[in-house]
């Protein structure tokens, strides 16, 4: 057993010598492709900060945003065939005085309007407004002599198909139910409103809608936290246009025990043609001194990079390197102990 123990000691000494040489310096050096201390923008530079924020450009729609579309004016093109859930305004001038008919009536799923217990139901689905007026007059003539009936369209069921929340699909389109789909990706809200109205004009008379963003899902920023040799964590947050570095770290619940205070923002260049910005952050000044010089305003697609504690990274590396040898020593120690017991007491006493 002595030669084996001596060989294991030799392996351990080799590992220690390797760590004590220049090899450990490489593990303490930053792995980012950016310089350790990039040039810091001047406090008077145009980079937006906490007390000098800028308004973001007009919002452009992209998947998977959710739009809220409100139908303002929905008038079907004539001749309109009445459908379930349409509302028609019915007036009967010479109805019974104690049971007047002068109100808006919804067409139920069976295609009828209920005029009340005395007058009963009239089926009008699939008819034009004029045809529905004639049908209601014919029905009421059984109860009223020469009924004077007026019928007009109060609300179209098409408004229900349009109004509500609409997801921008992967193809950049929103679904308008029976009115088809319309492409809105890359458009501003005004451009999207015009595109929706243009699509609806194929079916409706001079339609008007209001378009707003219900959920800003396509504009985000990232917070990347190094894990001290245990892998990096990436968190994605939606952007509203009012976030700063302090807000981003607050979203994480603060800096973790594995993190250092070396933080910077990596801001992509437009169209990826070079010129990316690296904005170093002085966390001590922001948190302890209430300084706003490096508390930059976050822009869409920004990467906030939080570096790891180099000491913890080195410690974790030592643990990874020595862990296999610890297990090997454990197996050797267990085998040696079992061998000694067998030699001393025999197999029957185990």
Task: Throw out a few tags for this protein.
350 residues; alpha+beta; Outer membrane lipoprotein wza fold like; wza like fold; 3-stranded antiparallel β-sheet; 7 helices; 15 strands
Question: What sort of overall outline do the alpha carbons produce when their principal axes are compared?
Answer: elongated
**What is the terminal-to-terminal distance?**
21 Å
When the domains are counted, the total is 3
Major beta-sheet overview: 5 strands, mixed
What is the count of DSSP helices, taking H or I runs of 4+ residues? 7
The stretches of 5 or more residues where confidence is low (pLDDT under 50) are 18-39
What is the average per-residue confidence, as pLDDT, rounded to a whole number?
82
Based on secondary structure, the structural category is alpha+beta
Provide an overview of this structure.
The chain is an alpha+beta fold and 350 residues long. The protein has seven helices and 15 strands. 21% of the residues are buried. The radius of gyration is 37 Å and the shape is elongated. α1 (2-28) runs antiparallel to α7. The longest helix has 36 residues, at 310-345. It has helices spanning 2-28, 129-140, 158-162, 189-200, 245-252, 283-289, 310-345; strands spanning 66-73, 87-92, 101-106, 112-114, 121-123, 149-155, 164-167, 173-175, 181-183, 208-215, 220-225, 233-238, 259-267, 277-282, 303-308. The chain folds into three domains: 27-58 and 219-311, Outer membrane lipoprotein wza fold like, CATH 3.10.560; 66-75 and 159-215, wza like fold, CATH 3.30.1950.10; 87-155, 2-Layer Sandwich (wza like fold). A five-stranded mixed sheet has the order 12-11-15-13-14. Strands 7-1-10 form a three-stranded antiparallel sheet. β4 and β5 (121-123) form a beta hairpin. Residues 18-39 have low confidence and may be disordered.
């Amino acid at each position: 057993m002595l030669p084996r123990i001596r060989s294991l000691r030799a392996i351990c000494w080799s590992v220690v010598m390797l760590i004590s040489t220049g090899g450990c310096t490489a593990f303490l050096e930053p792995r980012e492709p950016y310089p350790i201390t990039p040039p810091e923008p001047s406090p008077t530079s145009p980079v937006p900060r906490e007390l000098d924020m800028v308004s973001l450009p007009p919002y452009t729609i992209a998947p998977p945003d959710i739009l809220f579309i409100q139908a303002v004016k929905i008038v079907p093109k004539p001749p309109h065939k009445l459908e379930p859930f349409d509302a028609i305004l019915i007036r009967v001038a010479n109805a019974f005085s104690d049971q007047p008919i002068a109100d808006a009536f919804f067409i139920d799923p069976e295609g009828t309007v209920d005029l009340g217990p005395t007058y009963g139901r009239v089926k009008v689905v699939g008819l034009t407004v004029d045809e529905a007026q004639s049908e209601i007059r014919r029905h009421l003539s059984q109860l009223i002599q020469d009924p004077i009936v007026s019928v007009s369209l109060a609300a179209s069921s098409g408004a229900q198909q349009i109004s509500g929340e609409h997801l921008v699909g992967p193809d950049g389109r929103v679904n308008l139910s029976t009115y088809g789909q319309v492409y809105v990706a890359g458009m501003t809200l005004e451009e999207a409103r015009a595109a929706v109205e243009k699509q609806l004009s194929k079916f409706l008379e001079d339609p008007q809608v209001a378009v707003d963003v219900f959920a800003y899902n396509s504009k985000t920023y990232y917070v990347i936290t190094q894990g001290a040799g245990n892998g990096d964590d990436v968190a994605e947050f939606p952007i509203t246009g009012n976030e700063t570095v302090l807000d981003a770290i607050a979203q994480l619940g603060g800096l973790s025990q594995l993190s250092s205070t070396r933080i910077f923002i990596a801001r992509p260049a437009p169209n990826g043609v070079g010129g990316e910005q690296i904005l170093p952050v002085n966390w001590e000044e922001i948190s302890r001194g209430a300084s706003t010089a490096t508390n930059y305003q976050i822009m869409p697609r920004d990467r906030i990079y939080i570096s790891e504690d180099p000491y913890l990274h080195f410690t974790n590396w030592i643990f990874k390197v020595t862990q296999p040898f610890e297990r090997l020593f454990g197996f050797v120690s267990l085998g040696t102990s079992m061998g000694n017991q067998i030699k001393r007491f025999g197999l029957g006493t185990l």
